[in-house]
Design goal:
With about 350 residues, this protein is of the alpha/beta class. The protein is built from 16 helices and five strands.
Length: about 350
């Protein structure tokens, strides 16, 4: 982990639009084909592109985690490849951004952002192994792929029947939920690589919601342990399937689950924890730019419900080590089953 630089992070965030415009002009000077490739919308496209990269850089600099920025650059590289946009443009855009920030940032704020960009440029030479398609290596992944085929063929009812039949025929509830989450991850990968449309991705998500509703209804519940868990995707995080799955798994295991869904303001999460007398709050951040909202939620919950434990997760933490500690959480989990185990330990549930 690199030394965090909150001042640099704040300056990057508040000046992202201006720096993005400067970087766009610099890119066009360095690489005229970047302008030619997008025609009349070139300036708008690249300004938005740079603005997002700068916000992602800000989030990484804030916590001193270069991996957070690298992961976004890798995603951008994969998206460019899928849309047959030459890879040189990603590299040239990073050089343009580096040049602009080297000129515009105050000296005390310059070192970490420039270092992170240089590392990202070097890492562009590596292959995007994380974008490999899902393979049928075990029962959950096989079920996930069969499920996706049915949904993407427009047969949501048959897809749900497939999931329910697998559960009725003995597939563990945790593995059944895992299959649905694998399907969500795979359709997310496919959408990013332009293999499916937004409409198709939405269809999969809505079908998965329906399937989970059936599973949680059919599952045999453990006796109540008297504990309440709040689960929420933090402000600006529109991904809610993960927190819904976690809430269901807790509910099946004897907790009262209160799922607030996506894009939940920090104050509302804290209010819910107080009103429902929660023993545990689960917070999800999908990308690094959500981490500020997550940290804000933690701070407000601490003030209003000081005895409540806080567990965090989500793709924003991928490739990091103890970032969750730095943000003030009590624990971290990578999936619903681990969340159940860690959460139980945090609040003293032994069964």
């Amino acid at each position: 982990m690199t030394q965090a630089n909150p001042m640099a992070a704040q300056l990057l965030n508040v000046s992202s639009a201006a720096y993005g415009a400067y970087a766009t002009n610099r890119l066009f000077e360095r690489c005229p084909e970047a302008k030619d490739r997008f025609g009349e919308m070139a300036f708008t496209y690249w300004k938005d592109h740079f603005g997002q990269r700068i916000k992602e850089l800000s989030a990484a600099v804030l916590v001193g985690e270069v991996g957070l920025f690298n992961s976004h650059v890798s995603w951008a590289k994969a998206a460019f490849e899928a849309r047959e946009i030459q890879n040189d443009l990603i590299r040239e855009s990073l050089h343009a951004l580096k040049d602009v920030l080297g000129e515009e940032l105050p000296e005390m704020c310059r070192q970490t952002p420039i270092q992170f960009i240089e590392i990202a440029i070097e890492d562009l030479k590596l292959s995007n192994k994380s974008f490999q398609p899902l393979e049928a290596t075990d029962p959950p992944s096989k079920l996930a792929l069969q499920y996706l085929v049915k949904v993407l063929n427009g047969d949501s009812n048959s897809a749900i029947e497939l999931i329910v039949d697998a559960f009725d025929n003995g597939l563990d509830v945790n593995q059944t939920y895992h299959a649905l989450l694998l399907a969500q991850q795979e359709v997310g990968r496919m959408w990013h690589l332009a293999e499916v449309s937004i409409a198709e991705e939405h269809l999969v998500t809505l079908t998965t919601e329906r399937a989970m509703a059936v599973l949680v209804y059919k599952s045999e519940k453990k006796p109540s342990n008297g504990k309440t868990v709040i689960s929420a995707a933090v402000a600006e995080n529109s991904h809610h399937i993960g927190v819904r799955a976690v809430s269901d798994i807790f509910e099946i295991n004897g907790w009262r689950g209160v799922c607030l869904g996506s894009d939940s303001p920090a104050s509302e999460i804290a209010h819910a924890a107080e009103v429902f007398k929660a023993s545990l709050v689960l917070l999800s951040a999908a990308i690094s730019t959500h981490l500020n909202s997550l940290q804000k939620a933690i701070e407000i919950i601490r003030k209003q419900s000081p005895t409540c434990k806080i567990l965090v997760g989500g793709m924003a933490f991928a490739g990091t080590n103890d970032l969750w500690k730095q943000l003030g959480a009590d624990g971290f989990a990578v999936n619903p089953v681990e969340a159940l185990s860690v959460g139980a330990k945090l609040v003293g549930v032994t069964k």
